[in-house]
User: Fold these one by one.
Assistant:
Number 1:
Amino acid sequence: METVAADDAIAQFARQDALAQLLGIELLEAGPGFARAAMHVGPHHLNSHGILHGGAIFSLADFCFAVACNSHGQAAFALHVDINFLATAPVGARLLAEATEEHLGNRTGLYHMRVMTGEGTLIAACHGMAYRRREHLA
């Protein structure tokens, strides 16, 4: 997993995500309330129908969500995430995901995530609510 333009704490946080590493998710960019990541679709990302697994799409979006909501250095965890699957992508496609902060409060944060192909086809759209704990990232 490679990190570009992310501070040390959030880069370290992202590197510790074992599932992201297993799925081949790469953090491209992170900043306060924002994250961008990529994943190349491989045969191991397919479901029993031979199409891109919804769990792989969700995991990419959720990784961005986690990085964005923890980017302020305060430990944050998902309270709720909803996802709308809109399209699929073939093996070999590069998926890009972005998470952007819509609202940041003392105890919660609201985020919007999008997963797209490299050509710009929208694959999924999500919203996530995070609970912000008082602890800081290590």
Number 2:
Amino acid sequence: MTKTVLVTGASSGIGAGIVRAFTAEGHHVHALARRADRLTTLAHETGCTVHGLDVTDAAALEESMGAIAPDVLVLNAGRGAGFVGLANTDRADLVATIQTNVIALLDMVRLAIPGMTERGHGHIVTMGSVAGLYSSVSSIYGASKSAVTMIGQNLRLELRGTGIRVTDIRPGRVASEFYDAAMPTEEMARTMKDSGIRELQPADIARAVLYAVNAPRHVNVSAIELQPTEQSYGGTQFDPIQPG
């Protein structure tokens, strides 16, 4: 069955990978992002319909959502800040991160729910992060992704009986442009990206999204946490005590 799919943050990385995966399956995909030139290239490649706008533009978002009426809403748009510590982070970056990662996400879900409820089905896919589950080096980014995870869990309760499914995808390190945008200098971005491990690829995340969306309608895949084999989270490690 062909679905209408809306993917935010679609101009590169994970978002573009998800657009490619859904169009390859023959779905009608709407790709939304700020960088119109990147979207145009993606449209030529995949045949997706593009929308060049910022998810924090509430008025433009409402107009676009009303025209699209998505069966599947993939909320991938996000930004990072605070990797230099909260005290060294500009308030503007703090506000922009929360507006993008949390408020815009809530706006889009709020706009999508009535149509999905009327049709008796729908799927909301949020892009969380292991940073929302485990301690990381940014309290701002971690807090925003913790909010994403809790929004999904609460939506599962709010939407019971509507036929709407909710999935939270929680990736670890992914090879993308994330740190290029999140870090204040190119040198810091290079340092953060030099993980020394084989990172996840956007296509890996896209396959996880497809798995959840393509599950039988009576099955809700509530969350998928995936990370590179060489990466792990949680717990505490201590250096061994050396004898006197």
